[in-house]
Design a protein that fits this description.
Chains A, B: It is an enzyme of class 2 (transferase). Chains A, B: This is Octaprenyl-diphosphate synthase. Chains A, B: Belongs to the FPP/GGPP synthase family. Two copies of one chain form a homodimer. Chain A has 308 residues and is mainly α. Chain A has one domain: Orthogonal Bundle (Farnesyl Diphosphate Synthase), CATH 1.10.600.10. Helices cover 77% and strands 1% of the residues of chain A. Chain A is built from 15 helices and two strands. In chain A, helix 3 runs antiparallel to helix 4, helix 3 runs antiparallel to helix 15 and helix 11 crosses helix 14. The model of chain A has no long low-confidence stretch (mean pLDDT 93). Chains A and B meet through helix 4, helix 5 and helix 6 of A and helix 4, helix 5 and helix 6 of B.
Chain lengths: 308, 308
């Protein structure tokens, strides 16, 4: 799969592999495509098409990251300068479009209309989730349910699709597809919850991005939603000033971290992640015990425990 | 098709139809999707799937425009403020991604792997063409051949794909596909040549954009390539200063227009467009004379004559 990723990021237009490989070779976890590989193997798939679909999934993810960096005006990703800082917003947008096109070409090459349906639907839902995130940004009245709608669309939908195309390519039945889709969806929710906790609780070196990036961008994530709702009137006024009016100085970030600690909202965010992790685990429970099932179970622990 | 375009631009996320309809309802010519409809009818297609593929084509085009406006930092498109000026770069990038996702969903819904292959390949080539355009920008050594490679990829490839999926959905044979692909490719080249001439020779009110936008962006198009190559040493130094060093003041635009007139490069650019138009015409020649063939022939004249 890594070989295919590198070869399909190639182009006669020299800037494309340069920009694409900057991100592709930056130590990403390859978490989503590994779901596809493991999920296909779980249903005893013996062909080669799961590698193509896994590569498609990774390219969809990479395209999203390239576009996200433009949307968020980020300067750091996985501990390196973002592509847009080196090559400009233009290259980030267009190389993202190229990778999305390559993703679809590989899916077409596999020839499964079911896989195409699942992955193209995910592409729409991801974009909807990103737009939804824009429209709730800097709005402190966002509820936990609003937030869940955002992360379900922008993150969990691709995890779900990545897992579901495994049984599809293996020509497993509907119950296998549903099990893996549910596993992926809930794993994705857990993953994003932990990610959002890490943004306030991690170290920059481990994160590969800056602590408090979400705070400075006015992104509304669960640690903040809970601290706002549990806070006093004065504290709520502080959050509105920091997030809605954009007064996100370092001093205000310090104060925000203090309130997050005061109300224990990081550990409660992780608590929610554990909840979804448990659902993901139960989704796989009926399937036969194999090394692939164990691997998929371990991924749940990996996603939740990286917080420590 | 217009109904389907409006309905598929819908989403529960309110900002999506707002941004999408701003562009979709801004008086675009629907030229590319009409090629799909006419090309399918030319091969006597009687179903409904050509409408879905035509809508996919228009969405691919609209997504490209939304991303282009971000890439070019444009403020005016079809005589209206660009989406990025009203809703920001973020919404332009993400709604473009959404429309591209919807385009693929509709293709999947049609279920033709051949059509999916043609259109997903076009999506890659378009992005490659846009990146290629970035890498030749502000380089006065760009040759006419380099320029042709750019416009073949960024513009003509979608015209070719739009026309080719007509015979595909009508289950016509290989020679029909090749004829329409060749027609579309050459029509697309003619279209872009005229577009690039209009940028120096049109009126803002007719263009829906500002005269000289390409000049100010340092885009290398044929009217400039020819004027540079035919110019004196002093004139070439002027072009390098204006385009490569970015001294694109109104006075310099006036001077550039003077040189373009001096060397007759607008009419020679149109001459090249006429050449490709003739190839497009001959590509269709062997096909039976029907109202659909006449319509496709008229499109060639329309594309070339809008210069007057």
């Amino acid at each position: 799969m890594n070989q295919l990723i590198l070869s399909k990021a190639g182009s006669d237009v020299q800037m494309i592999p340069e920009v694409a490989n900057h991100l592709i070779s930056s130590g990403g976890k390859r978490l989503r495509p590994m779901l596809t590989l493991a999920a296909a193997s779980l249903f005893d798939y013996r062909g080669e098409n799961h590698v193509k679909l896994a590569t498609s999934v990774e390219f969809m993810h990479t395209a999203t990251l390239l576009h996200d960096d433009v949307v968020d005006e980020s300067d750091l990703r996985r501990g390196k300068s973002t592509a847009r800082m080196i090559w400009g917003n233009q290259a980030s947008v267009l190389v993202g479009d190229f990778l999305l096109g390559q993703a679809f070409r590989m899916m077409v090459d596999v020839g499964s209309l079911d896989a195409l349906d699942v992955l193209s639907s995910a592409a729409c839902v991801i974009a909807e989730g990103e737009v939804l995130q824009l429209s709730v940004a800097k709005n402190m009245e966002t509820t936990e349910d609003d937030y869940l709608s955002v992360i379900r669309a922008k993150t969990a939908a691709l995890f779900a699709a990545a897992a579901e195309v495994g049984p599809i390519v293996a020509e497993a039945g509907r119950s296998g597809r549903n099990a893996l889709k549910s596993y992926g969806m809930n794993l994705g929710l857990a993953f994003q919850l932990v990610d959002d906790a890490l943004d306030y609780g991690g170290k920059a070196a481990d994160l590969g991005k800056n602590v408090g990036d979400d705070f400075r961008e006015g992104k509304i994530t669960l640690p903040v939603i809970l601290a706002y709702r549990r806070g006093t009137e004065d504290e709520r006024a502080f959050w509105r000033d920091a997030i809605e009016a954009g007064n996100s100085s370092d001093a205000n970030l310090e104060k925000a971290l203090g309130l997050i600690t005061k109300y224990g909202t990081l550990s409660d965010t992780i608590g929610r992640a554990v909840h979804y992790g448990t659902i993901a685990r139960d989704a796989l429970a009926p399937l036969p015990d194999t090394v692939w099932k164990s691997a998929l179970m371990e991924v749940i622990d990996f996603c939740i425990e990286r917080v420590n």
